[in-house]
Amino acid sequence: MNLYDRKTITIAKALVIASVVLGHILEAMLLDGNRSGFVSGSYNSIYLVHMPFYFILSGWLFKGAQPKLKYLIKKSKHLLVPYAAWLIIFNIPAIAGFIFNLSQGNMVGEKLVFYQQHFLSQLYGGMAVSGIQMILWFPMCLFFTQQLANYILDKFEKHVTVITSITALFYTLAYVNQYFFPEFHLPLAINVVCGALPLFLLGYYIKKYPIKMSFFWGLIVFCLVICVSLFIYSYPLTYHMRGANYGIPIISILAALGGFFTVLLISNYLSRSKYVYSVSQPLGKASMTIMYLHALILVQIRTLDVYNVFWLLIAGILIPTSIHLAMGRVSILSKLFLGEDKNE
Prior knowledge:
- It is a single chain.
- By secondary structure, the chain is an all-alpha fold.
- The chain is built from 14 helices and no strands.
- It has helices at residues 6-31, 37-61, 68-90, 92-103, 109-124, 137-156, 160-180, 193-208, 213-230, 251-270, 274-285, 287-302, 309-328, 331-338.
- Helix 6 crosses helix 8 (193-208) and helix 12 packs across helix 13 (309-328).
- The longest helix is centred in the first third of the chain and has 26 residues, at 6-31.
- The radius of gyration is 21 Å and the shape is globular.
């Protein structure tokens, strides 16, 4: 069983990005008053695994400490440039309104205050933005997590005790934020790095030093038991990382790690099918585009009075994937919105 191969990772990314879309569909149903135990259980199970998965996977795929400036430039192209591009797209109506009011000499009083507050919140990011932009915390948090992890591993790679201490410190700070200062949110979700860094380093080290199979299967069983319990009880185990909520210490991270292995195990089994891989490949590659656009798509689809979970899920996945594929054909759009450079 090889959980490291390209097909397994691609299918896993497709499954998890589908769970991100489904999670937000279920969240909307809960906010609309749906009290179904199945809906809430599914929602909580998804939120136990999906965002931790991305940070563990990032660490899992990390190849070790790299020259800091080179790595900064590389990840800036991959994450910061698309972030800025999509942020501008989301703000086109506000920018147009600002220019129009400015040209008409109406930029005074409440309008001036409104635009000041709006654009400041957009620059602040993280918890300051919501709605169709709610996912904007993730790329910035991932970027800062990657840079910090690269710096730590570059400085202390041979000092495991130091890295363990740093990881424990950040893990503790994450829960201090959650339990004692729940309203404390830094710009661009930088405070969430405290919860993300331990996941990233966990992924890096479990690949570097593979765990025993007994522990591997034990984590999977533990995750499944926790997920089943979430259909029955409302334990605060799930990760809501944007809001600096990381569940219950130790229990939630072990369950998330078990979920990570469960997704890889399922993906490895599915990779035997050429059909599954051919369907999953474009979804896996378009993960970030789906991440950016699915909330906007879901909102627009609901305005057409479409509330069926299946059709919302299909639209939330396939429309952004189609946009991703179209942008991939145009070099400048690929650089700006996908963080891909065909010449590199």
